[in-house]
Amino acid sequence: MRFSTAIATFVPILAVSAANHQVLVGEGGLTYTPSSLQAQTGDTVNFIFQAGDHSVTQSTFANPCTKLAGGIDSGLRSVTAGTTPLPQFSVAVAENTPLFFFCSQTNHCKEGMVFALNPTATQTFAEFQAKAEAS
Predict the structure, then answer these.
(1) What contacts 92, CB < 8 A, 6 or more positions away?
(2) What is the b/e burial string over 83-97, where b = at least 16 CB atoms within 10 angstroms of the residue's CB?
(3) Radius of gyration of the CA atoms of the chain, in A
(4) The model's pTM
(5) Could you tell me which of 29, 64, 110, 134 has the fewest CB atoms within 10 Å of its CB?
(6) At 131, is the secondary structure helix, strand, or coil?
(7) Which band of pLDDT confidence, cut at 50, 70 and 90, is reported for residue 16?
(8) Residues facing residue 91 across a β-bridge
(9) What is the DSSP track for 11-22?
């Protein structure tokens, strides 16, 4: 009797799955929680508005409390107690580069309500927030 052996080689297919990150806006005060995060190209950042009147408005590292012309902006979102579902605003990460955001509600940025996406060693969240509070 003859036996033949067939050897099959399985090459695992690596499925790259985009991540969905959640950032709570206004939870417990003038905050984004978390205040910064690292995301990859293809990921989505979902900003979930918790309470009060807040926005997710893009700025630059150099000018934290100034809206970037043509930048990302959720507009002010108002959330009162008992609002369901909570309003959300999503940002698709197109490049793995630093992006900086603030709340455009009067004085919120100057009180430190800022967010950094992909901060770097030379453009840190702490420095961005300090610039906002000094503006």
Answers:
(1) 42, 43, 44
(2) eeeeeebebebeeee
(3) 21
(4) 0.86
(5) 134
(6) helix
(7) low
(8) 45
(9) PPP------EEE
pLDDT digits (tens, 9 = 90+) for 61-90: 999 999 999 999 999 999 998 899 999 999
Owner of token pair 């490049």: 95
Tokens of 33: 């929680």
| Sheet (strand 20-25) strand order | 32-33, 20-25, 44-49, 88-92
Length of the chain: 135
Measured CA to CA, the distance from residue 27 to residue 33 in angstroms comes to 7
Q: Cα–Cα–Cα angle for 87, 88, 90, nearest 5°?
A: 165
- Which residue do the tokens 């909570």 mark? 86
- Please, what are the domains in the chain? 20-134 (2.60.40.420)
